[in-house]
């Protein structure tokens, strides 16, 4: 049987800008040490709501988890750049 080329993967979905508030860095600097702040709280809530709605079948919620992952990645990249620039 001849080898066939595997199908191309589906394109990665495009997401809107993360829901991180514009003044998040200022709030982050002034927060208490033990207080947890999540810049991607909206994406996190949507992914958890999807899990609840779909009886905790994670495969049904791939889009929401990818969106949350992208938000966290952009936020961490931004924080890293600000740290390197000496602004944090």
UniProtKB/TrEMBL annotation:
Domain CHCH residues, every copy: 40-74
Biased composition (Pro residues): 1-12
Region (Disordered): 1-28
Xref: InterPro entries: CHCH, COX23, Cys_alpha_HP_mot_SF
Listed name of the protein: Cytochrome c oxidase-assembly factor COX23, mitochondrial
Cellular compartments per GO CC: mitochondrial intermembrane space
Entry annotated with the keyword Transmembrane: no
Entry function: Required for the assembly of cytochrome c oxidase.
Basic and acidic residues biased stretches: 13-28
PANTHER family xrefs: COILED-COIL-HELIX-COILED-COIL-HELIX DOMAIN-CONTAINING PROTEIN 7 (PTHR46811)
GO biological-process terms attached to the record: mitochondrial respiratory chain complex assembly
Superkingdom of origin: Eukaryota
